[in-house]
């Protein structure tokens, strides 16, 4: 039976993807999870201000990330910029659908990791691992229509648009569409 119990380290030209080290990664996670762009592009509810980062929030974050390496149905990896050796985000395979050999991918890159192709390479590396090493047939994702940077990165990484779900997010006073994308084993180069 295929699972995500093995937590590999994957190495590319620009990034290294490695298992979460909660205490070591906490400073980067704090910056990333409070970043307005990360909140805007990954949240399923509009909030004009980031949530307060207090002791309770820090405990929740540490507790959450402490359990990630023990989960056999998901793979959470930290994106490390090889040029600096610093973590800049996370990339995740989740929503494991075993009978259909499929899963979801999501990524969040903090401000120190943007506009240098790190996210694109991280997506490509993890998708390649999913489709080739793990033998999955399909890796899918959804991206808000107003996140053009991520859509371009996913397309560069080999994902194709499959459709649009209309008005899935109420953001301020606007309805935002969701773009569904996927990479399939039979088309993966």
UniProtKB/TrEMBL annotation:
Sequence ranges assigned to domain N-acetyltransferase in this UniProt record: 15-186
Q: Which InterPro entries match?
A: Acyl_CoA_acyltransferase, GNAT_dom
The family database entries (Gene3D superfamilies) matched by this protein are listed as: 3.40.630.30
Pfam families per the UniProt record, alphabetical? Acetyltransf_3 (PF13302)
GO MF annotation: an example: acyltransferase activity, transferring groups other than amino-acyl groups
Q: Which PROSITE patterns match?
A: GNAT
What is the official name of this protein in its record? Acetyltransferase
């Amino acid at each position: 039976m295929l699972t995500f119990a093995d937590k590999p380290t994957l190495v590319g030209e620009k990034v290294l993807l490695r298992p979460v080290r909660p205490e070591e990664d906490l400073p980067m996670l704090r910056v990333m999870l409070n970043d307005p762009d990360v909140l805007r592009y990954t949240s399923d509810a509009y909030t004009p201000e980031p949530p307060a980062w207090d002791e309770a929030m820090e405990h929740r974050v540490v507790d959450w990330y402490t359990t990630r390496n023990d989960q056999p149905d998901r793979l959470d990896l930290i994106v490390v910029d090889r040029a600096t050796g610093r973590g800049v985000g996370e990339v995740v395979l989740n929503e494991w659908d075993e009978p259909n050999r499929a899963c979801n991918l999501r990524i969040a890159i903090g401000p120190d990791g943007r506009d240098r192709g790190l996210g694109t390479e991280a997506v490509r590396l993890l998708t390649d691992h999913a489709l080739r090493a793990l033998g999955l047939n399909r890796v899918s994702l959804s991206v808000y229509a107003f996140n053009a940077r991520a859509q371009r990165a996913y397309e560069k990484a080999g994902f194709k648009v499959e459709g649009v779900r209309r008005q899935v997010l109420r953001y301020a006073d606007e309805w935002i569409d969701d773009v569904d994308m996927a990479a399939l084993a039979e088309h993966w180069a």
